[in-house]
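>> Question from a student workshop board

For tomorrow's exercise we were told to take the sequence and the ligand below, predict the bound structure, and bring the output to class. My setup keeps failing. Could a helper post the expected result so I can at least see what it should look like? The ligand is LTTK3YTO.
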Amino acid sequence: MATENREKDMSAVARRFAAVINHLNPMFAQPHLGSNDISLSKCSGSMNDSYHRIHGEVSDKIPVWNVACDETGVEFTDIIYEKAEGEAIAKITINRPEGRNASRPHTIKELITKGLVSQWYSSCVRSSPTKMVVGSSPAYDMAIGVSSRVCKGKGAIAFWAGPNLVVWARYAFWARGHVATNCRSKKSSMKITNRFDQFVPVGKRLPVLAGVRCELSGSMNDSYHRIHGEVSDKIPVWNVACDETGVEFTDIIYEKAEGEAIAKITINRPERRNAFRPHTIKELIRAFNDARDDSSIGVIILTGKGTKAFCSGGDQTLRSGDGYADFENFGRLNVLDLQVQMRRLPKPVIAMVIFVIYTCQSLLSSVNCDMRMVQVKFCVASNKVAGYAVGGGHVLHMVCDLTIAADNAVFGQTGPKVGSFDAGYGSSIMSRLVGPKKAREMWFLARFYTAQEAEKMGLINTVVPLEKLEQETVKWCREIIRNSPTAIRVLKSSLNAVDDGHAGHQELGGNATLIFYGTEEVFRNKLVQMRRLPKPVIAMVIFVIYTYQSLLNCDMGMVQVKVCVASNKVAGYAVGGGHVLHMVCDLTIAADNAVFGQTGPKVGSFDAGYGSSIMSRLVGPKKAREMWFLARFYTAQEAEKMGLINTVVPLEKLEQETVKWCREIIRNSPTAIRVLKSSLNAVDDGHAGHQELGGNATLIFYGTEEGNEGKTAYMERRPPNFSKFPRRP
Ligand SMILES: CC(C)(COP(=O)(O)OP(=O)(O)OC[C@H]1O[C@@H](n2cnc3c(N)ncnc32)[C@H](O)[C@@H]1OP(=O)(O)O)[C@@H](O)C(=O)NCCC(=O)NCCSC(=O)c1cc(O)c2ccccc2c1O
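>> Workshop helper replied:
Here is what the output should look like for this input. Compare the format with yours to find the bug.
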């Protein structure tokens, strides 16, 4: 029912959007629509406002389509290209119904001719079997005077059966019944959703409408489901596991499923509603590392022990002015490290009371290109008590890729009531999940929400009866495990990439290198390299300084990295991955004999991550292309001119100068330097940069009287009194 309503809504939205598009730009608006044509817009109803009065109504009468061709005059075979009579609309129909409108290269060529390619990303739109759906933002094609385009598939079965992996990303990821287009419901009168609503050709920006039809009904009786079949939801036998240290876990339980690629991690502090202390986080990090590196593991489950909570966040009894302190004499916010680890691990995870799945990416374990799955069962309620995922525990579930909740789960942020906040992932990822308004509501009011409310908000994936939770979760794990590990790995990094700035780019680029290393092209290049290159004699040339950031002790230290010191005037190379290392450093001081450059394209390698994105920031897009495409070497002087390094000094003065720079930095406020470093990176680093900067804000806040009032009130079981703190202008 809800699905049908959404369908209706979407159709309405689509029609209205079409109306807006046609009226937005008067240049392309059609003056020919008579009053008889008006049938769609219900201006007289709820939409009785000046906006609708001014912009009027729009007809939904199907135009007369005339077959068209492009300037070559060559007839199309794989598509049908039509233009509406007297209207600025073109329609392109993929015309290979016998193959479910699967594209072959020739199809794409024909589509390209019509400028429909290059950007297949889109927001999700729906269509009923008979109606066109509108997506994409308004844009105009001055050249041909067509103000909108329609793209659809011929026949009743498919809009398009591929092959663009990126378009499929979210759907292929679960591969739970999504055929060529994404079929969202297994019930009768199946609706089809597509993601082809926005085709933005380079140089020609037109609104494009994707029409999708599907007449399948009943169960998923198609070749896709016949081939891939069902998965079991039988709960596996769990055996206790440990990591390579052999040291037993105290705050968590780490298990692996017998004969299956599933690991399970349980937060084991039920007496504290599974609140974490620094030691808990350290153990979680160890277990996740092990699960990531263990090539027999494909899924990890993390769960909270007991019946009452998934996780209630940081242990407030251990909170001090500089974070959370247990066995050490300084505080830390090391859950931030765990969050980053979870965001980047290349394997999926699942939890209970709430169930969380996330795919974990790791470049370290990527050598065998394995895709593991991590199932995280935070807590299984044995009866109908509420399973809390609150505070920092709530952020943990949000960082996970997928969340499956039992019907007794409760979600919420408590920070503003206990003098805390997560201004990193806790804010940015939440805003992405539930939208900016709901995110503000969740944080500013600090309310709790039921699993059903959470599902409605898009905070979680699904809600199942508590007694079915583990079964359902295991089933999701197994469905993911069946799929291509490399596809899942790359998809996860690509799904994060846009939000994660340099860090997301780095992850995705690393995956590209990983795949490239397995190709013949690289193999041949490696041989060439081995034959021709003498063993390099490298003299130090460059001196690199980077400021060392530590959340552990809030210290601002300085690490001076002296890569190599030349005893005479040989060239000091900072090349290939060594060159990337110096770029990642905050400052670079070069000796006058330094030589800089990337070698990748000559030796069958590339760094499509930081090596590209940070370089482009340092030297600009053109110079960066030059450095990578030509793979030339540059002198220290040239490097300085490009902005690649900070300064050049005579080789004999290099160490003196570098130490001087270090001392100048050390004299300054450590907190200022710490926050400045994260803020200088923040814009480029997306969610990751935001997380770093936000973490620093929390750290400083914990040292304030106001932050402390929140914690003290929690400890004293009283409402906090924040009235004495100024509401600053
Ligand atoms: C989770 C609850 C809503 C459950 O309520 P319930 O009534 O079921 O249970 P009790 O309240 O009686 O709790 C039983 C028992 O457990 C102890 N306990 C529960 N949660 C914690 C906790 N987080 N820390 C310490 N102890 C906890 C409780 O004191 C009871 O002990 P007894 O000895 O009295 O039996 C409810 O418990 C609740 O609201 N809990 C607190 C939730 C909370 O505010 N969490 C902290 C938010 S801040 C945070 O997590 C955080 C951590 C970080 O590391 C960050 C890092 C960087 C940025 C931000 C961070 C951040 O915000």
